[in-house]
Structure formats: structure tokens, C-alpha cells
Amino acid sequence: MKAVRVHAHGEPDVLLYEDAPDPEPKANEALVRVAATGVNYIDVYHRTGLYKLGPFPFVPGVEAAGTVVSVGADVRDLGAGDRVAFAGPPGAYAEAVAVPAERLVLLPKAVSFQQGAAVMLQGMTAHYLALATYALRPGDTCLVHAAAGGVGLLLCRIAQRRGARVIGTVSTAEKAKLAREAGADEVILYSSQDFEAETRRMTAGRGVQVVYDGIGRSTFDKSLNCLAPRGTLVLFGQASGPVPPLDAQVLSQRGSLYLTRPTLFHYTATREELLQRANDLFTWMSEGWLHVRVDREYALRDAAAAHRALEGRETTGKVLLLP
What we know:
By secondary structure, the chain is α/β, with parallel strands linked by helices. It folds into 2 domains: 2-120 and 268-322, Quinone Oxidoreductase, Chain A, domain 1 (Alpha-Beta Complex); 138-261, Rossmann fold (3-Layer(aba) Sandwich), CATH 3.40.50.720. It has 10 helices and 15 strands. Strands 3, 4, 5, 6, 7, 14 and 15 form a 7-stranded mixed β-sheet that branches. The mean pLDDT is 97.
């Protein structure tokens, strides 16, 4: 088969489109013919070595949708022809991938492969952020960084439905429009405005109950300053780089704050929780109020271009690779 493989960590050019061994499903696995692959920032971390994935050469990609070709021993609930999606197991930058059956979710007929590949990782991330890590309530105000990104757009919509007031940060007027359409009540252009000062102004100096921060280094300190006393900073990514070590006393000094660094794996650790989150998303999509924006699609061979666009903050919504 054809796959994108990494032989050494580095810039996007290390993503090589080449022949790779055909995968075979082991016991409790299913072989999936990939129809669409989601591109996520964790793929960048794997490519650069910030998060380790190996040994070399390895196939990146932790999200895809496609069709089951065959199943290994002991797989009972899936069969050839089933339409499925997953987020978590690596190897998705390929024409086919063997996936543990317990991590696969059946796609409803109303959800396309592109939508399935676009919503699994970022959608379930938005789901656990708004419903579990800090469960938004009516009357809460939240600050969502990168509100026009893949997670950001979904998080704005879910937060709005939870009854929260949503303040989003974006870099351009075009992205501000998308964030408002997704449910942001107010939008800050961080390229020309100080988001800390604007957040304080918009909350009459009180601050917000929660900041959802997938940016990391460049936003971390000011995100803490945007919180109301006993507020929560949810650091779920580090697009601008990892956050330096923190003296825990800072949390006390700034208002008895909470800081958490969640990951999707821990919020989909059981089969039951995985299905709950994924099926909630599929239901909301079928009801028509949750929309997944696919910003652009690339051929699998052009994975390097997809990474450049993602890292260059050129994208709004989801980026997909199509074998």
C-alpha cells in the first residue's frame, strides 16, 4: 500500500509518501480501508519528536474513517463492509490501517467519511472539555482560544448550547466571522488587541470561569490572568510550544485557581465513554445544530503541505487527507 512515513524527526519535508507493508489485523483488530484521514496538531508533535511515536519508520495520523475490510480473531461486533471511524491509534496516514476493534465506532449512514474523520478527535475533545473537564453551566463565561480552529469552532457551538457566554480569540476578521457564526458571543482579535485586557473589560473586571487554551506557551500567563477567583485553566494543547515549569504558588496568588492538562485518551479510556462521546456528536450532527467545517482537503501524498498550512495557522476548521 501507499503510506506517509517518517524516518527521522524534523520539518514537514520528513513526511515521505512511499510504499509500505500491507497491514494485517491481529486478534481483536480490524483492517480498515481508509477513506479520509484527519490532520491534527498531535501529528505535528509526532513528526517533530515533541511526542514520541516510533520506532522509525512510523506512519503518523491518529484519526480516520473508512470501511472494514477484514477482522482478526475474537472480533465479534464488526464485519467486512462496516463504515467506521476512530481517533487514537496511530497509522492513519495510509491507504489502510489495522485498528483495535474496541476503538472503532460505527458511522451512521447520515455521516460521511469526511465528516467522520473530521469530528472524531476534535469533536470528542470539545465534548469532554465542555461537559467533563470543566462542565459548563448556564451563566458561566468561557474564553476559547483559537476559536476558528477545528476544536474551537465545535467548542464554541457546544458551549453556547450549554448556556455559557462565549468569548473567542482569533487572528483575523475572517476568522472572527466564523467564530461568531459558531456561537461566540464576543470575539477578540489577538493580533491587534490584548486578549487579557479585553477579557477583563468584557467581564467588568471579574474574569471568566474557564479558559480553554490549546495554544500553550504564548497564551498561558495571560490566560491565568483572565480567570475569576477559583477559575479553571484547561491547557489541552501547545500549538505555540510547551509551557515552562510553573510555581504552584502562582495559582494561589492569582485567586486559588485550578490548572489541568487533559488528554482525549483519558476521557475515552473505556469503550462506554468512547461510544457516549462519539454518538453524542453524531446525534447532534444529525439534528443539524452541530456543524463540522472542513477547511481543505489534500491528497495523501501532500501531507507535508497540510502540515505547513496547519502550523502556519492558515486553516479554519478541519484539514483532511484523502488517499
